[in-house]
Amino acid sequence: MEENRRDAGLVRAVGPWGLAAGIINVVVGSAIFVVPAALAANMGPFAPFAILLCAVAVGSVAICFAEGGSRIASSGGVYSSIDAAFGPLAGYVAGTMLWVSDVLSAGGIAVAFADICVTLLPPELKPTAHALIVVVTIGGIACINIGGIKGAIRLVNVTSVLKLLALAIFLLAGASAIHLQNFHQSVAFSDSGIGRAVILALFAFMGMETPLAASGEVKQPARTIPRALLLAMVSVTLLYVAIQVVSQGILGPALATSAAPLSDAMARISPTLRLLMLAGTALSMFGYLSSDLLGSPRILFAFARDGLLPRALGRVQKRTRAPHVAIACYATLAIVLALTGTFSELAILSALSNAPFYIAGCAASWQLARRGIARAGTPLNFRWLTLAVVVGIISMLVLIAFASRAEILGLCALIGASIVIYVVQTQVALRRSASP
């Protein structure tokens, strides 16, 4: 299906800074506020090297996504590239992996956000307040998105700036409190420990695909998408390394056992800074949700426009030019998951579901380049695309290999169910079209 048909009624209003802010907002979610402790527990002061290794792995995936996005820029983002490269069945399965991963993550982040917000409330009020915060937060962000892409982008930009401001304060205040003796190695290396550290860092880098789902509303996509991805991923890598170094320099061996490393580090400087980090954590989670509600519903919208979901999800609000039905349905599903699940279980399932999608996205970029497909203007034409594809795919296979047997079986079941649903839908559609 041609992109102009899939994206009919939408407006291309997202520039490189807005798209980069959306990517940063999703990638720099809640993970960076807790992952430094887990990395230190497994690698000690050498944890920044795990971050750099994962930056290379996920950076390779980002290059593939940039190549594919510069060739196929439509609603659904990477799903559209996979669909164009390998056909509707592969696109449907990969797209299902993406939106399932996204909605699981959104539900988990909403749970964690509400957990922070109810911290100071009396125990008897916490359950009701927790549920109310989940509903109001996701529902409010959904309403802003239904009001139009420009308002949604403004929300993403504002939350990105405020989140990065809190992290900048952490780095500036923490730089003066670093003690060199805290960088002495105190952790015994093991293969399992290093592997766990790498996987945790990979989790922290995931999320760039979600804002790309709004590619049908990106201005000059052949230039904007690669630039936004480059800007976002370089910024995130530098930020993560700096946070890990400062956390280690302040807390030393205590970093490995900290439940809230950034807050604990600031507590050694000032109680006020500790509260600021707690607020920054909540703000980061809110920013994640604002970016997720911008991008992920566009996957459902693209599915509906392609005839793979009820056509009502493909409707566009006449006044705001937003896919209002898809946004409302996605937000409702995220609320239900948040009210019935926990952060850890939802986050783990989300990260694992993303790996097959990343593999398919890498392979699709290579296939599109090999076939010379370019529907969004002059493509990126990255010289070492094949190397990026190989590194990206191997990295995601490693991620899957570190999952439990039950999780891998569950992932296979989800893929199998997606294939069955697609085949059944296709057969039903063929019978309907053949009937008089």
In short:
This protein is mainly α and 436 residues long. It is built from 18 helices and no strands. 74% of the residues lie in helices and 0% in strands.
Explain what the structure shows.
The protein is an all-alpha fold. The chain has a single domain (3-434), classed as Amino acid/polyamine transporter I (Up-down Bundle). It has helices at 3-6, 16-27, 35-43, 47-71, 78-86, 88-117, 126-146, 149-175, 191-205, 209-212, 221-251, 261-267, 271-295, 297-305, 324-340, 343-371, 385-401, 405-434. The protein is globular and about 75 Å long.
List the helices and strands and how they pair.
Elements: H1 3-6, H2 16-27, H3 35-43, H4 47-71, H5 78-86, H6 88-117, H7 126-146, H8 149-175, H9 191-205, H10 209-212, H11 221-251, H12 261-267, H13 271-295, H14 297-305, H15 324-340, H16 343-371, H17 385-401, H18 405-434
Helix pairs in contact: 2-8, 2-11, 2-13, 3-9, 4-9, 4-11, 4-16, 4-17, 5-6, 5-16, 6-7, 6-13, 6-14, 6-15, 6-16, 6-18, 7-8, 7-13, 7-15, 8-11, 8-13, 11-12, 12-13, 14-15, 16-17
What structural class do the secondary elements suggest?
Answer: mainly alpha
**Which geometry do the CA atoms define?**
globular
Question: What is the name of the CATH architecture?
Answer: Up-down Bundle
The CATH fourth-level homologous superfamily: Amino acid/polyamine transporter I
User: Roughly how much helix do the residues carry, as a percent range?
Assistant: over 70%
